[in-house]
Amino acid sequence: MTENKEDIDFERKILEMEMPLKKFISEEEKETSWKEILLTVEGDSHKRSIIKNLYWVAAAASVLIIIGVALWPIVDSGFRTSDHEKLTIGLTDGSSVTLNNKSRLDVADDFGEKDRRVSLRGEAFFTVQRDEMKPFVIAIGRHEVIVVGTSFNVNYKENLAEVTVRSGKVRLQADNKVLILEAGEKGVISLAGELSRVEWNANDFAWYSETLIFKEKSLKEIAEILSKIFNRRVEVSPTIASCTLSGKIEYETIDDILVIIEVTFDVEWKVESNRIYIYGDKGC
Question: If you ran DSSP here, which 8-state letter would residue 257 be given?
Fold first, then answer.
């Protein structure tokens, strides 16, 4: 009974630490076509890891006598997610980090004492508590992302880094090169360590906000976006690949999006292992 209560209390604390993303849709994006569809599904709680305590009990003579109980917490400063899992982490400085699937965040044992340093491999959305005396530093390979207080997305895979800023300013540092990004800007660090600005896309946050925005996107383009977000291979038959969709979709799972596509275009879809195939004979 005690362990169940501790698990429930821990789950409640984790949920309290989650910081939902506010809507960040521009006025232009709100003017969608007549095909605009809105699907709202209440979120589901993500899987959490429970840290358990280990007790050592010593016995003496013929009678079991507890001579001391030492509490040794098993501390793992690394947070990991599996292939189709997301995890929100509350840091001691009040900042929040949400890990996308197949990602890892390492937090220094002395985080928040002298500085605020973490390292990332994979993708994560950061909401950083402002502290001008202790900049928040994210190590991505041999490069760094440095902020004071802001919210932004970092995608670091196969030594290629993309940083998209939602609010505040972000400093990208690659060797002796520096690039300052502001809200609504996106920066890339190439394999060679070169810095550049690229086009910003609201769907860069889609995996986190669970909101997709399409403006005359073809089903082929949408399939590519879904493949990236859900870490699954999504394909479309040639007969419907050029059909376009405009609108805003709020979702919980990929099935929610597939149902909308099915109803809108009168098509079908099927799942085979880790592959999803959308098909139809009527065209657009």
Answer: H
Residues with Cβ within 8 Å of residue 177, at least 6 apart in sequence: 193, 194, 195
CA 120 – CA 141 distance, rounded (Å):
8
CA distances from 239 to 3, 246, 260, 267, 282 (A): 56, 19, 18, 10, 7
- Percent helix, strand, coil in the chain, to 5, is 20, 40, 45
Section 178-206 average pLDDT: 92
Contact of 31 with 216, CB cutoff 8 Å: no
How far apart are alpha carbons 90 and 75 in whole angstroms? 15
Closest CA to 162 of 188, 137, 183: 188
Q: Tens digits of per-residue pLDDT, 148-162?
A: 889 999 999 988 999
pTM, to two decimals: 0.69
Q: How many CB atoms lie within 10 A of CB 192?
A: 7
Residues in the chain, total: 284
Q: Mean of the pLDDT values across residues 49-78?
A: 33
Largest CA distance in the chain: 84
* CATH numbers and ranges of domains, the chain: 51-204 (2.60.120.1440), 210-279 (3.55.50.30)
Given a cut of 70, whether residue 254 has pLDDT beyond it is yes
> Quick one: pLDDT at residue 200?
87
**What is the DSSP code string of 205-230?**
GHHHH-EEEEEEEEHHHHHHHHHHHH
Residue-wise pLDDT tens digits, 197-242: 998 888 988 999 999 999 999 999 999 999 999 989 999 999 999 9
